[in-house]
Amino acid sequence: MNTFFLIFIILPALEIFFMIEIGSKIGALSTLALIFLTAILGVFFARVQGIQTLKSGLVNLYQNKVPIYELVSGASIAFAAVLLIIPGFITDLIGFIILIPFTRRVLFKIALRGKTTTDKHKEKIDAIDGEIVKKEKDEL
Questions:
Q1: Angle at CA 102, nearest 5°, toward 96 and 108?
Q2: CA-based angle 37:39:97, to the nearest 5?
Q3: What is the pLDDT of residues 6-61, one digit of tens each?
Q4: Which of 16, 56, 94, 133 is at a distance of 20 to 30 A from 47, taking alpha carbons?
């Protein structure tokens, strides 16, 4: 089954279904208030997590380390913020799961399983660094 079909057809249908079901249980105004509340809380937590990730990345830069985890984490926090702004309970749940640092690390480990390369798999390339020097002198 096509992934885009799931994202653009089935996900909004499920979101509408859950909104109707929750609206029938707690009322329409309460459901709208809950949707706005999750969006506001989600953006707030995304901001807090983003600032923490930025500080961690700066610490890694000061220690001359490449902040790879912080870059990927920052992108996932931005994606989570977009999911939290989109009205719906499934996207909010996915967004909050991505915002939690522990679950974000677990998701990264699952996504990157088997994708790391070690020194055994890298090709050794023998190269000699050199510089070309012109022996001609500049004339003034």
A1: 90
A2: 110
A3: 788 888 899 999 999 999 999 989 999 999 999 899 889 989 999 999 999 899 88
A4: 16
- Identify the DSSP state of 113: T
DSSP string for residues in 10-66: IHHHHHHHHHHHHHHHH-HHHHHHHHHHHHHHHHHHHHHHHHHHHHHHHHHHHTT--
Q: 54: how many CB neighbours lie within 10 A of its CB?
A: 15
Do residues 23 and 87 touch, judged by C-beta distance below 8 A? no
Contact 19, 38 (CB under 8 A): no
